[in-house]
Each structure stands twice: as C-alpha cells, then as structure tokens.
Prior knowledge:
Number of helices: 12
Number of strands: 20
Mean pLDDT: 96
Amino acid sequence: xxxxxxxxxALGLGAAYRLSQAGHSVMVFEQEELVGGLAAGFRIGxxxxxxxxxxxxxxxxxxIKLMQELGLGERLExxxxxxxxxxxxxxxxxxxxxxxxxxxxxRFHERLRVGxxxxxxxxxxxxxxxxxxxxxWLRRWMGKRPYDLLFKPLFACKFGKLADQIALPWFWARFxxxxxxxxxxxxxxxxxYEELAARIEQAxxxxxxxxxxxxxxxxxxERWEVRTSQGTWSFDRVISTLPPRLTCRLVPALPDDYKAxxxxxxxxxxxxxxxxxxxxxxxxxxxxxxxxxxPFTSLVEHTNYRPTSEYGGRxxxxxxxxxxxxxxxxxxxxxxLLAEFLPHIKRLNPAxxxxxxxxxxxxxxxxxxxxVTTEYRQHxxxxxxxxxxxxxxxxxxxxxxxxxxNYSFELVERLLHELNH
Length: 421
C-alpha cells in the first residue's frame, strides 16, 4: 500500500519507519530542511544540540526501546542534574522528595502537605481529576501559600492570562510520569531522527524535505492526491501528523461537523534563545525564576547536565518562553531579545557580563504548547477520520500529556494497531 505521511517529526518518522518495515511504500513530506520536528537539533561542531531543550525520564520506555532497536542504546546516559526555584534572589533546590523536605521557603508542615499531594498524583490515575481546573484544586489540597509561592508563578509564566483555565489532568501528568533521573542521548536526540530517516530510505521509501503541503484531496477512485510546493502525488492512504487545525485547512473535504469539533482550541508558540558562554553561569541545570519581572519562563543550563567537552568547551544556556502566537516576542530579532534578556541574567549571577556570550542562536516554533482546558478532552480527534484512507496522529492525541518524544512513539504504536484492524 502507498502512504503519504505529512510531517517529519517524531510521529511522522516513527509511522513511516514502521510502515516501511511492514513492506509499504511511504513518502514523508516535511516543510523544514531537517527531520525531527520540535525535537530537531542543529550542529555545534561535530555534535547535535536540540533547538528546544529535551531530556527523557526512566518511565519513557517506548523511546528507550526504540533507541536500542536503532543501535543507539549505548549512547543513552542517565544523571540527576539540579533543578531549582529562584526566590528572593536565592536558589532553592526542588527536584526530589528529599530536597522538598529541605525546601526552606516552605514551612515544614507545608513541605509535608506538598509532598503528600505529589504522592497522591503519583499513585492515582488521571481519571480522578477530569473536569477540574488545576488552580482551585491545588490551592485547596497543597494550601494557598505553597501554591502561591511555587505553582502560581509557573502557571502564569507558561500560560499567561489562560493560567486559571488549565485542566488538572495536565498538572497530574507533570507529576505522575516524571523521575528524578533524566536521560540524554550522547550526541543529541537528532541521532534518532537521522537514523529513522536513513532506515526509511533504505527500505525504499522517500523523504521530501523543504516541501510544503498545500492541499490534500480525495479522488474519485478513493485514492488521495497530495499537492505540495514540489509537485503532486497520489496515494492509497494519508496520515497527517500536523496539528488538527492545519489538517482541517489542508483537507477541504472534511465534514463541517468534524471541523466544528476538532478545528478548535489554542496552542502557544515556543521560543528559545541559546547562548554559548565562555564560562559557567550557575551550578544548576533547570532554573525556575518565580520572582516577578523575568522575560523568560525558564533558564536551562544544558552544560550543567552534559559536559562542556561535548560542545567544544562551550557553556550552553537556553532561555525559554511559551507565548501566544500574536505576542510581540515572536517579531523581535535575536539582537532585540538579547538586549532584553541579558540584563536579567545578571540578576541570576551578579558577576555576569555580556562579554561572556561568545555565540547565540534563536529558534521559534508555532503550536508547540497546547492549552489543555477542561473541555480539551472532548475535542481530541480520533485517529481515523470520517474520510476513508485519511488518518491523523498528532500531539493533541497524547492527552493528558501535551508533548514529548516518548508519547509520540507510543502514539505511533496505537496508530499502527488501528491501521491493521
């Protein structure tokens, strides 16, 4: 059977790889010049670095097995880097039950209460929390003061004016599957996508990079025509791994009631400014600046997780943001962003000087952070669409999670099961 796969990220490549293994002919269409989607990297010397910070957890068993299958298992390395909250000008470690017990901004009974809520979220399934928003539940069970100190600022940074609409199952997912140890693929996660692409092509299938899909139409013989910026092709089946709204626009024949239900919701864009410094900035990997006034949601010092020797001695810093797509930040140049961001880095380390910055990069991606509200679950599209031969598999379908390489590859397995039944 001949398949078109729209999108060359984890979902698209994973589906194309499995279909090619099964003997099908597949053509992958990817708008960017590089495979990997939101997990894609860029070259720093002879290694890869992710455009948007990535790691995996011990519970991410699907991607771990895939790495082993692809011959990359020996590159997977585990460590326990330091995660901190920045409060009142001081760093406070909070990345395990033990560091919670020592977390001085909270009173001892508050630490116990936060720990009890975390244990409950770990021990229970997401179904208990359906139909609830996170904010009132957390205020009630963690307590107003712990919530206001720790989580209210994080919700505000990540979701802005929509913070009070976020569904509790989304927060559950932040606790339930996460582990204190983090995994990283030495050489960069891009190696997974390069290997998948190579194996897809070795099986006789094709990848068309730098190719924009413009329209997808069902023909009279029920085959599918895919019109792109590089030409038009015909297929037996089409799998769209694009966001539902984009799929609805590319496939005009989708019924109105389908579009009314699934062409829905909001998603924020992601932005990362990456700095290469000539020295270490802090001793922490992940910094949550919950003090007011910072123009970035998080600061991730990647080389407090991975050795600088992997990157030619560079000390690498991510300055990350999630914002509404019409936010002015997405129209700012890298130079304008640096002018706004760098003075705030001095708040983290008073010794910092802009001369420490040797190189810098800017990456942005639309639809990177779905806004998971209490209605979200009702608008998750099924894998099979009403049109014969058209399937969808996208990050909106990994609910209550909202993104992640492991969940993409899990969804591939679900998709393949449905395709075969």
